[in-house]
Write a structure and sequence with these properties.
Blueprint: E1 5-10, E2 13-18, E3 26-27, H1 29-44, E4 50-54, E5 62-63, H2 65-72, H3 76-94, E6 100-104, E7 107-109, H4 111-117, E8 121-125, E9 129-131, H5 145-153, H6 155-164, E10 167-169, H7 170-175, E11 181-183, H8 188-200, H9 204-217, H10 222-236, H11 241-250
Parallel strand pairs: 2-4, 3-5, 4-6, 6-8, 7-9, 8-11
Antiparallel strand pairs: 1-2, 9-10
Helix pairs in contact: 1-3, 4-5, 5-6, 9-10
Length: about 260
């Protein structure tokens, strides 16, 4: 792999760093391939309990429009295949089994914003620049943004941001519920790391199951959510962590979970 990104480790937290800050981390096919590979590596590493994605001064400027030109020139079929390949990045992030946090500084445009929103939690800098840029270039939302943005901010806000192509800063994104937290730029990674460590302290089988349940429940009816919760909870209540928690509670001591 080339040096487009690097997976660092801070104890139980993996930090996936995008390294082309000078170019604002364009969302190229090569970027997607490395993203998928690193997320797969982090998912298979049992010492990593949660992951942060960050681009240092800039998260990602979005699709590599210059690099995509050759494939687009070949016609609709080649373009469709290209878009599907680019979508592999969002798929890998959204389906990542462990908790995933985006730490956003600088620009997060188009596919870069979609990638940020595919995480479970987004921490943005106050002066970060977020934009659903597709309307500006004669396109429509892709890389999952049409769905992700509506899930977070609601249909009305999503339509406003997509149709206007308006750039918003981190403060506005927090007000509109596009991101969960907003802090000064120099505190973004530290805050993301603080949240990641807070999550990593919990039993991981329960955390990963909870993430799956929350994602599934968001896409179904209330009654279907009850069934999803029942099936997952039935497994967890019989697993090693919950019985230990109940025993520790009755013995008035701190639980000793096996997967720490």
């Amino acid at each position: 792999m080339t040096e487009l990104m690097r997976l660092d480790r801070e104890g139980p937290v993996g930090i996936l760093r995008f390294l082309q800050t000078a170019k604002r981390n364009p969302y190229s096919v090569a970027f997607v391939e490395e993203l998928v590979a690193h997320l797969r590596e982090a998912e298979c590493d049992d010492t990593i309990r949660t992951v942060i994605m960050t681009g240092d001064e800039h998260f990602s400027s979005g699709g590599d429009l210059v690099g995509f030109q050759a494939e687009v020139a070949k016609g609709a079929r080649a373009t469709s295949e290209l878009v599907d390949k680019v979508h592999d990045g969002g798929r890998a992030a959204y389906l990542f089994r462990k908790p995933l946090i985006s730490a956003v500084r600088g620009v997060a445009y188009g596919a870069g914003l979609s990638l940020a929103l595919s995480a479970d939690i987004v921490v943005a800098a106050e002066d970060a620049r977020l934009c659903e840029v597709f309307a500006r270039v004669g396109g429509c939302p892709d890389t999952g943004s049409s769905w992700l943005l509506q899930q977070r901010a609601g249909a009305g806000v999503a339509r406003m941001l997509v149709l206007t192509g308006r750039e918003i800063d981190g403060r506005t994104a927090k007000d509109l519920r596009v991101v969960e937290e907003c802090v000064p730029a120099e505190q973004v990674e530290a805050r993301a790391l603080e949240i990641a460590r807070e999550i990593a302290a919990h039993p991981m089988f329960g955390v990963q199951t909870t993430k799956r349940v929350m994602r599934a429940a968001a896409e179904c009816s209330y009654l279907e959510a009850l069934d999803i919760e029942r099936d997952a909870q039935s497994v967890l209540l019989c697993a090693h962590d919950f019985p230990e928690a109940m025993k520790a509670f009755s013995e008035k001591r701190k639980p000793e979970f096996k997967d720490r």
